Amino acid sequence: MQAPETSGLGGPLQFMFLKVRSKCFPNPKVTVRRSILAALAVTYVVFLIWFNQVDKAKLVDYSGRYYVKAKVVQIIRDNLASNGQRNGSQLVQVRVLEGKDKGRLFSASSSSSDQIGVICRVGMEVIVNISISTNSGSVATVYGPNREPILYGIIAAFVLALWLIGGKKGIRSIAALAFTFSALIFFYMPLIYRGFSPFWGAVLISVLTAVVSLYIIGGHTVKTAAGIVGTIFGIMAAGLFAAIAGHIANISGYSVSEYESLIVIGQGTKIGIGELLFAGILFSSLGAVMDVGYSIASAIAELEAQNPDVSGRQLFRSGVRIGRDMIGTMCNTLILAFVGGMLIMLVTIYAYNQPYTETINSSEIAIDIIQSLSGSFGMILTVPMVALVSSHLIPILKRRKKRAV
User: Fold this and answer.
1) Which of 215, 211, 391, 195 lies closest to 286, judged by CA?
2) Topology adopted by domain 65-146
3) pTM here?
């Protein structure tokens, strides 16, 4: 018996419904997978909210002073000299834009130094530090310009460019970045504050970040699994190299310029300051190791797809050859990133003609060398490991998938 034809709006509406349903729910497996991922995401957010309920030690007393946004409404006294130079500080009148003092006018001093203060102009938004004094009332000082909207604008421009140029992969990259920063700030920080080892905490966060980020970017694929295994191995190699090199060179987390602040933190909290340096090395090498690991796994997966009869040994050799081409540029990238961070120190050493013996034996130089080479070392060892895992894992999993079908 032939089914009756649908008349009126039923046909178009039914067609639209079926089309929307096919896009939103392609098949039951995808629906289940998306539901599981959504549940995991919600669980992760709830866990972070709970985990960040930490009672912090009061290392600095902020009572009696606070920072607010304000707008400069008048320059009471300028510090511009006749020769065009600025000496001393400005005296300006500002109107508070937020908080309990919103709308209130304050006379505030603004230093001309590069660290605190700014050269104020009428209409300029600034950050003001208001200190409450029992004798003279409230004292206001210009802390600096309001950089918040500028920084958020730069971040928005970066995200927009990543989305427009990267497309779906760009959106996946944004999600991976969001997870990485949330894990670092809202998971790692309270974790070590509770007394957990900073080094092993960094290992945990690095592994978690590698697994989640590569899954978000690469999806539920064989090359993602191979890239994750190789990345974890490279991270562990970088951390082990840094720990051994630091021990031999007598370097610890206290061998940095922020020594005094770290002493206060170490005495007032449970944070293991001595391990922070090597934890930072793990995080700094994570991106390059993930890049190399996933790229080689993707290349081997493509080679195997084009030639299913290729042997595991041939895939391994091809992966190593591809990795060799990447090692040169990626090592350069890592080392130059650290050189860029220490450029001011290098200029100071060069300008003051600091003796070689003093320079090479300084803790700052030793730390930077160990940091840059540890990441490179982990990345180098990632190449054969990913090639080995990918050349064996990808063909095996693909054969199992075919048999299951």
Assistant:
1) 211
2) OB fold (Dihydrolipoamide Acetyltransferase, E2P) (2.40.50)
3) 0.79
